[in-house]
Design a protein that fits this description.
The complex is a heterodimer of chains A (about 300) and B (about 325). By secondary structure, chain A is α/β, with parallel strands linked by helices. In chain A, helix 5 runs parallel beside helix 8. Chain B has two domains: about 50 residues; about 240 residues, Orthogonal Bundle (MetI-like fold). In chain B, strand 1 and strand 2 form a beta hairpin. In chain B, helix 9 packs antiparallel against helix 13. The mean pLDDT of chain B is about 90. Classes of the chains: A alpha/beta (about 300), B mainly alpha (about 325).
Amino acid sequence: MTQNDTRNVDGDDEQRTDGSETAVSEPTTGSDATSDSLLDASLDVEGGTVPADADTVIEARDLDVFYDDVQALEGVDIEIPENGVTALIGPSGCGKSTFLRSINRMNDLIDAARVDGDLRFEGKNVYDDDVDPVALRRKIGMVFQTPNPFPKSIYDNVAFGLEVQDKADDVDETVHRALERAALLEEVEDQLDSSGLDLSGGQQQRLCIARAIAPDPDVLLMDEPASALDPIATSKIEDLIEDLAEEYTVVIVTHNMQQAARISDKTAVFLTGGELVEFDDTDKIFENPEHERVEDYITGKFG
Amino acid sequence: MSDTPIEADLTRSANGRIAKERLYHGLLFCCAALTVFVTVGIVATLAIDALEFFGRVDPYAFFTGTEWVLRSENPILGILPLLSATLVVTVVSALVAIPIGTAAAVYLSEYASDRMRSVLKPALEILAGIPTVVYGFFALVYLTPWLQQIGLGVSLFNLLSASIMVGIMIIPMVSSISEDAMSAVPDSLRQAGYGLGATKFEVSTKIVIPASISGIFSSYILALSRAIGETMIVVVAGGSRARMFDPSQPFANLLNSGQTMTAAMVQAVTTDLSGGTAGYYSMFAIGLTLFAITFSMNLLSNRIAARYREEYQ
């Protein structure tokens, strides 16, 4: 396992180096990636997911979240860079999902939830009074733990976000591209009119990913997207996530440390009490963490 | 119970239990069967007496007759005026109950806070518990004068007032069954919608309602069956003059009195009709027609529920 981790970490290192070079030779790549993402879907540029000087997309400062009197997050500070995969790991109840849901204000749907502190998305505090959570969520896609396709056709599932966001130009083409981007098009091309619920669990989750990326958000939040899937479907989803990270900022919550090590560039470790204990490059976290508690957690001494 | 026990101890005690179990089984069966027997009995009686009626009155004349005069030496018994009045009441009450009931269900299921829901739901149930004669009285004493005040020119007894009141009466049925269906839609679908940047209204109308459409349709059909069979409101507020629907003046039909099938049956019961006359037997023919309509609507409701049933996961 250690060997496995090391190999992955090496891979990440190479990618990062490539990324910096790309950023230097073609300084526009990073900023253009999101706007052209679907158009460039077929032009997969290898590596280069997190340039060293990547812009910060999501930044939390002293973020607290409470459910009634229970504190779920305590003083979280984090800067999540543009593109690449940032994994949030930690034991159950450590607040990692709470943090994920506070990014796109899904916690608003829970009456008891209360947020203190700053959470900036592209520079704007999303908890400012003048922020419309609907507008925020249109820039941030989300994929949930259990596949939750709508009881509609495959096509309508993917077109839903386009419809509510008034992105009605070329719906057909966008739906096809999103399905292709989610590595699902080949399997469902002939049955776009049949229900999304007829698909297998892994296909349903890829459908949900296609649905989330169809409106072309800037960020993709994933809440344990593979935890309900079998190993084969999981590995497909993981490949897909690494692929998507070339054009989207992916923030993924996972229970599975190997998964975090395999697919993420940066890892944030939350520990009990809702505290973000360490946030660093994934290889650093898994090879040589600063904190003993993180090391204990990584090596399986608790959690 | 003449089983000869092979292993005395075990079987004897078991026998007592078996006998008791059989008794319970039998009692429970009788109660369940009673309702079936009563239903079958009623339908059979209706059918037999209706057959008697059709021995005296030509079925074709009955189902196509556009005039209904019961109290007369020679009654004229054509069901169409009654049928058309019933349809008018059903359609108008549906126009009242379906939009309001559905909107109330969406509010209760998607918008209302827990506290608001805990106040509104019992209130709706109270609305459902009011005796219909009270609704009828309310229509006659308050709604009709108010309709006159706003210049609608309704007569003292009129179908409009009765229909609106029937519509109000069936709102709780639409809203409570629809709300149950909407609440059954898993939260994960709502979250998916919000996550895609949908507003609450879009989540309600584009996700929750389509996902619960079979339950919503069922509520409509059950409520309409109820409207078709509603009696007291139309008797009290709608009057007792059978009038054929005049398609050239659709609104005039509403402003005037009219007699529905149920109201005609009440009249037949309360009028001193001698047994054995065609007028007397007409009750059964109307009753059977009414039963056929509501029965087929219930079948339709089941069909729709089965056809559009969505599995969410």
